[in-house]
Amino acid sequence: IFFYVDDIVLAYKKGKENEAKRLTDQIQQKYQLTGGNALQWFLGMEIIRDRDRRLIWLSQSAYIDKIANLAIQKPDRWPNVPMSGPELLPYKDRASIASIRRYQKKIGSILYAAVVTRPDIAFAVSRLARFNMNPSDEHHAAADKVIHYLKRTRSLALQLGGGDDFLVASDASFADNSIDRKSSQGYVMQLFGGTIGWRANKQDTVTTSTTEAELLALSQATKESMFISRLLQEIGIRLDNWTIQIQCDNQQTIKLVNKEVGPLQTKLRHVNIHDHNWGDGSRWSYQGTQQSTIQGLR
């Protein structure tokens, strides 16, 4: 059972209908409940089920239609990607209060989609959110482009089901922020064939090589995947294979973690912490993934 304020969802196996009804009756003794039918909507998400194929889709098409009018500029062409073009930089002048409020409303609206069902816009929203306090017309145009992209791809939905593995992938873009030269990073996690977690953000510290940036991204993905793995075991979910496959496209990072090469030589303490040599010869990243499989993308 899970709920948000006064919206409650009760999920149970078909053979436990009596237990579910008993729990519902207990709740009704204290609260007045409505509904009780098969789940179709929850927090603006449409739930679509294919019981024969054992698949579920989470769609926010109705929500996207609702926020589409936040975009002021009309597109000459509907975008194929949420963000493109030169890097967005801070506005040197001062935005009006009305502009700030309008921009924050846009970002808050697309952020909800990015968090719930649309990992494809996570990076774009992360970039745009940096200018919440002083947006320019260029920032507004970029936010409008994300909204137009959502409108064009409104039929995309998050699919759950169809597999048995726990897969994780991480990536980094070295020094792609021209102002502070910090790198961007991200990860995505799939469980039972469905995407269950993702994140795209700027790294907290500066790195001096692609390998260092990739190592920090892999470290973040490793910690998150280990948390999910322990959570699944705690709530009694059993996997046929508990090995976590973490995909990384940087061969040097893969070799470092699997100890195929010597330890990374760096004077950056924040990087050294993630790749630290302990007395027993194992590194933090290696310790975190010793039960996992680190593999390169081909």
Automatic annotation (TrEMBL):
Record-linked SUPFAM superfamilies: DNA/RNA polymerases (SSF56672)
Biological process (GO), any one: DNA biosynthetic process
Source species, domain of life: Eukaryota
Protein name: Reverse transcriptase Ty1/copia-type domain-containing protein
